[in-house]
Amino acid sequence: MNKRLKIAEEEVAKEEAAKNLKKIESHEIAWQLNRVANALEQVLRLVKEDQERSRKYMEEKKDE
Question: Is 1 helix (H, G, I), strand (E, B) or coil?
Fold first, then answer.
């Protein structure tokens, strides 16, 4: 009986460890996705700034 209880406890511990690993993996994936989203936002901001500078430059060139 004691051996069965020990095996059952080990199985429960393994299941809990697997659940915790999945949570950690989910958090890691979410963190990486957040980094990608932040990088994309920065790229878009830089592109918009460049487009604005280009627009102003072209308007100034047109006026000359």
Answer: coil
